[in-house]
Specification:
Elements: H1 2-12, H2 18-27, H3 35-42, H4 46-53, H5 63-76, H6 81-92, H7 100-109, H8 125-132, H9 136-164, H10 171-177, E1 204-205, E2 215-219, E3 223-229, E4 234-240, E5 245-247, E6 253-257, E7 263-267, E8 270-271, E9 282-286, H11 289-292
Parallel strand pairs: 1-5
Antiparallel strand pairs: 2-5, 2-7, 3-4, 3-6, 6-9, 7-8
Helix pairs in contact: 1-6, 5-6, 8-9
C-alpha cells in the first residue's frame, strides 16, 4: 500500500497540470481524438472538457461536477482517474500534501474505480478488504459463508440423530429421515409496471436491472447522477441528458443528484414526488419504493 501511495504521489507532483495530462492523452499517440466526439460519448458539454484541459475550473459550476467530469474524462482517455482528480484538488487548494495519504486510503476503501460506472461492482467488497488488510477480519469476510453452511449441516445432522436415536445405516435413509421443510406460499411478486415517461427515452442505463427494477429514474433536464450500494461502493456515475433512463437495482441503494428538479422518479410505474428543486444538489437519497413513494 505504501509503495502504491508513493507511486501516485510521484505522478501527482510531477510538475504537469491535470489539464496538460488530459490534453496530451487526447492529442498525442495513435489514438488522437476530437473533443466533440468525446463530449458526445460522455454526454458532457464540449466547453466543460475544454475548461478541464485549460485548467479553467471556474467555468464548471460546482466542485462535484469538476471532479466527476474529470474522472470520466480520464477513464475515457485510459488515464488513472485518481491521479487526475488528485492533481485538480491540489490546483484548487482543496487538498494539501500532508492530507494525501489519508485521502488515498479513503479512495482505496471505496475501490480504485468506484466511480467507473457499474462494471466495478463485479469486485466483491470482501476481496478488496482482503487485499488491503489481509487480517483476520478479511479472512472471515471471505469465508463466513462456508462456516455458516457447515454449521447448518451439523445442526441438521444433530437433530436427525436425536430423533432417530441411532446413526442411519445407508445414505438413502439419511435423505428420507431429514424432514422436508414446510412449503410456503410464494411471495407476491413486486409490481413492475412500465412507466409512461414524460419525455422520449434517449438512452437507457442499468439494463441488467430492467426486468426487476421497481424504481426507475429519468432525466428531464441535464443532471449528474451517482448511485451507491449499501456499502458505499459506486454502481453508476455520469451526467444524464434529457430523456436518459436509469434502472435502479432492487438492492438497497442511495443516490446523489446535481439537479434534483431535473429527474423524474417512477415507483412501480407511478410518478413519485420530486426529489427537490431545480439546480438543487441532494445526496443520500434512499432509492426504495417505501422511501420514494410514502403512503
Amino acid at each position: 500500500m505504501t509503495k502504491e501511495i508513493n507511486d501516485i504521489q510521484a505522478q501527482v507532483h510531477d510538475g504537469k497540470t491535470a489539464g496538460e495530462l488530459l490534453r496530451a492523452a487526447r492529442t498525442t499517440g495513435r489514438r488522437k481524438r476530437e473533443l466533440q466526439t468525446i463530449a458526445r460519448q460522455l454526454c458532457i458539454r464540449e466547453e466543460f472538457l475544454e475548461a478541464l484541459e485549460a485548467c479553467e475550473y471556474n467555468k464548471i459550476p460546482e466542485l462535484v461536477y469538476i471532479l466527476g467530469f474529470a474522472r470520466n474524462y480520464a477513464l475515457e482517455l485510459e488515464l488513472d482517474p485518481n491521479i487526475v482528480v488528485q492533481k485538480i484538488k491540489y490546483e484548487l487548494g482543496v487538498l494539501k500534501i500532508d492530507e494525501e495519504d489519508e485521502e488515498k486510503q479513503d479512495d482505496d476503501a471505496q475501490n480504485t474505480q468506484a466511480d467507473c460506472v457499474a462494471q466495478c461492482n463485479k469486485i466483491p467488497t470482501a476481496a478488496v478488504a482482503a487485499g488491503a488488510g489481509g487480517d483476520a477480519g478479511g479472512f472471515f469476510a471471505r469465508t463466513w459463508k462456508y462456516f455458516a453452511g457447515g454449521a447448518a449441516v451439523i445442526l441438521v445432522l444433530a437433530v436427525f440423530f436425536a430423533l432417530r436415536g441411532r446413526a442411519p445405516e445407508t445414505a438413502e435413509q439419511l435423505v428420507v429421515a431429514i424432514p422436508v421443510a414446510e412449503q410456503q406460499a410464494p411471495a407476491t411478486p413486486a409490481v413492475r409496471a412500465t412507466p409512461e415517461f414524460t419525455v422520449p427515452v434517449r438512452e437507457a442505463f442499468g439494463l441488467a436491472n430492467r426486468a426487476d427494477a421497481t424504481v426507475i429514474l429519468q432525466a428531464t433536464a441535464e443532471t449528474w447522477l451517482k448511485v451507491e450500494d449499501a456499502r458505499g461502493e459506486t454502481l453508476f456515475s455520469r451526467v444524464l441528458s434529457e430523456g436518459d433512463v436509469y434502472y435502479v437495482p432492487t438492492a438497497t441503494t442511495r443516490a446523489t443528484v446535481g439537479n434534483a428538479g431535473g429527474i423524474d422518479v417512477w415507483v412501480n410505474g407511478r410518478l413519485a414526488p420530486r426529489l427537490g428543486g431545480d439546480r438543487v444538489r441532494r445526496s443520500g437519497i434512499l432509492l426504495t419504493p417505501a422511501a420514494l413513494m410514502p403512503e
